[in-house]
């Protein structure tokens, strides 16, 4: 619900232009200050982090439920509070990275000005956004690498990879556990029931991620194109120096 409310307030434009990627909010008809508007934009991005971490925890819970060895005690009582804090911390980390490494700046705004005007009829003087502008061209035409934006983009990629890897690992382990149920004395009916529950879980998470995944896959593909070649170039030069 919070995700939907923030999306309604921000009404984001997901924009990829050259060596930049940004999520933009139009402020022309907004009564919000730039700081508050940016906080809403960053919080909307953070909600995606909360969602994928909650989904990953759901897969962990499903795997422990299949163990039938009292493993669900890890989700009982006060331990349940711990699992709830993980997605919240991930979302707050996401907001922190946006605020301290992907805050709007004059160079980035000027770089977006013509592009957002032609694509969305937005006025760069009345927007706020979060994003990365990796290769920055100064007044002398010299290309500079923005380390701050690169570190922010790297941090977001790490935040996304952790839950996605968790989903793959525990999804696979749950599937293999279901396949071996009959060899552990369970009936074919139990196996079919557990497989139906497993498929329902996978389908549910797919639907939850269906809309935001389109936007954030653009982000992921953009980072592969613009950020990782620069990081590889840095490490190759570092190796040559050594």
UniProtKB/TrEMBL annotation:
Signal peptide: none annotated. The chain crosses the membrane at residues 36-61, 81-102, 151-172. Pfam families: 7TM_GPCR_Str (PF10326). Keywords: Membrane, Transmembrane, Transmembrane helix. One of its GO terms (molecular function) is G protein-coupled olfactory receptor activity. One of its GO terms (cellular component) is plasma membrane. It comes from the Eukaryota. One of its GO terms (biological process) is olfactory behavior. PANTHER family: 7-TRANSMEMBRANE DOMAIN RECEPTOR C.ELEGANS, SEVEN TM RECEPTOR. This is 7TM GPCR serpentine receptor class x (Srx) domain-containing protein. It comes from Caenorhabditis nigoni. The gene is Cnig_chr_IV.g12830.
């Amino acid at each position: 619900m919070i995700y939907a409310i923030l999306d309604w307030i921000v009404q984001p434009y997901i924009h990829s232009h050259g060596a930049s990627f940004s999520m933009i909010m139009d402020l022309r008809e907004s009564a919000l200050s730039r700081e508050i508007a940016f906080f809403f934009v960053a919080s909307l991005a953070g909600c995606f982090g909360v969602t994928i971490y909650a989904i990953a925890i759901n897969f962990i819970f499903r795997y422990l439920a299949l163990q039938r060895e009292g493993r669900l005690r890890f989700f009982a009582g006060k331990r349940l509070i711990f699992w709830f804090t993980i997605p919240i911390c991930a979302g707050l980390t996401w907001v922190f990275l946006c605020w301290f490494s992907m805050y709007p700046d004059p160079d980035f705004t000027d770089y977006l000005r013509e592009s957002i005007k032609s694509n969305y009829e937005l006025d760069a003087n009345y927007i706020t956004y979060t994003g990365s502008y990796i290769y920055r061209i100064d007044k002398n035409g010299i290309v500079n690498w923005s380390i701050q934006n690169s570190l922010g983009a790297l941090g977001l990629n790490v935040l996304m990879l952790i839950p996605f890897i968790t989903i793959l690992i525990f999804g696979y382990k749950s599937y293999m556990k279901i396949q071996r149920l009959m060899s552990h004395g369970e009936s074919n009916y139990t196996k079919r029931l557990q497989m139906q529950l497993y498929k329902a879980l996978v389908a549910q998470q797919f639907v939850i991620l269906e809309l935001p995944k389109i936007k954030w896959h653009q982000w992921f593909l953009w980072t592969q194109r613009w950020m990782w070649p620069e990081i590889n170039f840095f490490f190759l030069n570092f190796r040559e120096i050594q």
